[in-house]
Specification:
heterodimer, A: alpha/beta, D-Maltodextrin-Binding Protein, domain 2, 2 domains, three-stranded parallel sheet, 9 strands, B: mainly alpha, MetI-like fold, two-stranded antiparallel sheet, globular
Chain lengths: 347, 275
């Protein structure tokens, strides 16, 4: 009997404790939904202090994860960070709130080339956060060929040393580009050819990976990998044998923007946050921490020379002349899914 | 009568968190949404008959069966060794066996990544002994190792608890009647431990057939298992109907597997029981 009484007491104390924590602070809260490993945590702390608010921070791994949790409802995020093609889809499906530009004076620091892009022609719904490219990171000690083409990922010399992204859109995009097609194609023959190309490549591939790619490349477990430019910056920082190249056939250039979902409970605070993130010194600190490329021209000036002049993070116009922005391919998504299934289950 | 009242909260719990979601999954599986209207169809289930999907199902079941067999072969002796110890040492051994399970299984699986990597610890020792480094990660063996490692306790614990409870006087009686060690095992210990084996098989096979994290991490994303397929439908394609249909098909297969094992259980007890 004594034991049950003690147990009851513990349960009681715990539940009271939880209840107290639950209603203890009535600060306004901001619910931020971002990619994993994609912000300097200090920046969030500063925002909380300066505005006397609490930030609930949640992360996702792919645009699709984020889209499903917002589109299916039941969430109440105030700010999220989709990429170009996903913004296009979310606008089309009426999932985003229009942003009041008067509330975001720091929009003036954003470079011309990052504004008014096709997926959001007047930036009514989105404010640029980061941008970058998809390319090949390679270990100079392990690769003695020139890396300037996607072909190297099909070179049998590097069997078992190639890492691909475990992401349908990017991997199929790479195969399409290698064949000289558009990454946004809806042509079945071209997609079929891309599938054959990926099946041909499979025996050479060490693994299809997500965020683990960073540890694998830094730890020299593989020679070549398809990565996003910002991750490349972070990896090169940790292992100087690594280098990054944007293949000459062209690649994907992407933009991650901040948006406010239509059902955001605290739109004003969300706008405050977006404005805060574009304050030059904050944007610079954040960009330096995560390694991705900032569209904020004032912030760029504040970055350390080394990063500012890095052609990984800030490639020349020539290097990105063949790059394409992803368009939404929602209507052929099942085709993409089937291609990926066939590639994955091929053995 | 009192017990009945106490059981209501559990019934409610079951209804809300198990029965209703199951019905929802079933509803999703047999419907499609087209332009806002919902129609009943078996299209989702028929779509699964595509050879590619059948292939995925077959690979998943094969892998789960392999895992179950290996954990049984490894787990039974372990359960027996622990059950034969003195009670005080027994508890310590079980504790040692269970402690790793206090850690999140993702962390434990990640640990294998660093152990098995090309420049990992195991390869370090292999090269130290003068051999060529081996390719240990991102292949069938690595996936199987990860599954067996993660699910072994689920096999050992039920077998151990059944074995520990066997009345020792039965074994003494067998000895008195002149049975040798082998006969005692096949005629007494093994038949009495069948319920533990069945529980163990169930507890390993079910999670093994639906796992997707282990195969992704240790298989390097080169495997499409049925779990990955379902995840893909829900998170990537956003086709909840087809995703639910695959879930239902998987549940059916698990049910069949369970029916077979429980049948085996009763047969054992009926015909070739203890005496």
């Amino acid at each position: 009997m004594k034991k049950t009484r003690i147990l009851l007491l513990i349960v009681l104390v715990l539940s009271v404790g939880i209840a107290l924590v639950g209603c203890g602070d009535d600060k306004p809260t901001l619910n931020v939904y971002n990619w994993g490993d994609y912000i300097d945590p200090e920046v969030i702390n500063d925002f909380e202090k300066e505005f006397g608010v609490k930030v609930n921070y949640d992360t996702f791994a792919t645009n699709e994860d984020m889209y499903v949790s917002i589109a299916k409802g039941g969430t109440n995020y105030d700010v999220t960070f989709p990429s170009d093609y996903m913004i296009e889809r979310m606008i089309a499906e009426d999932l985003l709130a229009k942003i009041d530009k008067d509330k975001i004076p720091n929009l003036q620091y954003i470079g011309e080339r990052y504004l008014n892009l096709d997926f959001d022609p007047n930036n009514e719904y989105s404010v640029p956060y980061m941008w970058g490219t998809v390319g090949i990171i390679y270990n100079k000690k392990m690769v003695d060929d020139v890396v300037d083409s996607w072909d190297i990922l099909w070179n049998e010399k590097y069997q078992g040393q190639i890492l691909m992204l475990d992401s349908q859109r990017e991997s199929i995009g790479v195969a399409l580009k290698k064949l000289g097609y558009s990454m946004n194609t809806r042509n079945m023959d071209e997609l079929e050819a891309a599938k054959e190309e990926l099946i041909k490549q499979k025996p050479l591939v060490y693994a299809y990976v997500g965020d683990e790619v960073k540890e694998l490349m830094v730890g020299e477990e593989a020679a070549l990998a398809v990565v996003w430019s910002g991750d490349a910056v972070a990896m090169i920082r940790e292992n100087e044998n690594l280098a990054y190249a944007i293949p000459k056939e062209g690649s994907n250039i992407w933009f991650d923007n901040m948006v406010i979902p239509k059902n955001a409970p605290n739109k004003e605070l969300a706008e405050e946050f977006i404005n805060f993130m574009n304050r030059p010194e904050i944007a610079a600190r954040n960009a330096e921490y995560i390694g991705y490329s900032t569209p904020n021209t004032q912030a760029l000036e504040l970055l350390p020379e080394e990063l500012k002049n890095s052609d990984v993070a800030y490639p020349s116009d020539k290097a990105i002349e063949n790059t394409e922005i992803f368009l939404d391919v929602k209507d052929v998504l099942t085709i993409y899914d089937n291609i990926w299934l066939e590639v994955k289950s091929h053995r | 009568m009192k017990m009945k009242i106490f059981s209501y909260p559990y019934m409610l719990w079951l209804a809300i968190f198990i029965v209703v979601p199951l019905i929802l999954v079933l509803l999703y599986a047999v419907t499609v949404t087209e332009g806002g209207s919902i129609t009943f169809t078996i299209e989702n289930l028929r779509r699964f008959l595509d050879p590619n999907y059948i292939d995925v199902l077959w690979i998943s079941i094969k892998l789960a069966l392999e895992t179950t067999v290996i954990t049984l072969i490894l787990g039974y002796p372990i359960g027996m060794i622990i059950a034969k110890e003195k009670p005080s040492r027994r508890n310590t051994m079980i504790l040692l066996f269970v402690i790793p399970m206090w850690m999140n299984f993702l962390l434990r699986t990640y640990a294998w990544l660093t152990l098995l990597g090309k420049n990992g610890i195991i390869n370090y020792f292999i090269t130290l002994l003068g051999f060529e480094p081996m390719n240990l990660l991102y292949n069938d063996g690595a996936v199987l190792l990860g599954m067996v490692y993660n699910f072994l306790p689920f096999m050992v614990l039920p077998i151990y608890s059944v074995l520990a409870k066997i009345d020792y006087s039965l074994i003494e009686a067998a000895e008195d009647l002149g049975a040798n060690k082998y006969q005692i095992f096949t005629k007494v210990t093994l038949p009495l431990s069948v319920p533990g084996i069945i529980t163990g098989i169930t507890m390993v096979f079910m999670p093994a057939v639906s796992t997707f994290v282990i195969s992704r991490l240790l298989g390097g994303g080169q495997y499409m298992l049925i779990g990955n397929l379902i995840e893909q439908q829900f998170l990537w394609v956003g086709d909840w109907h087809f995703g639910s249909a695959i879930s239902i098909i998987m549940m059916i297969f698990i049910l069949i597997a369970m029916a077979i094992t429980s049948k085996f259980d009763t047969q054992k007890e009926g015909s070739s029981g203890l005496w």
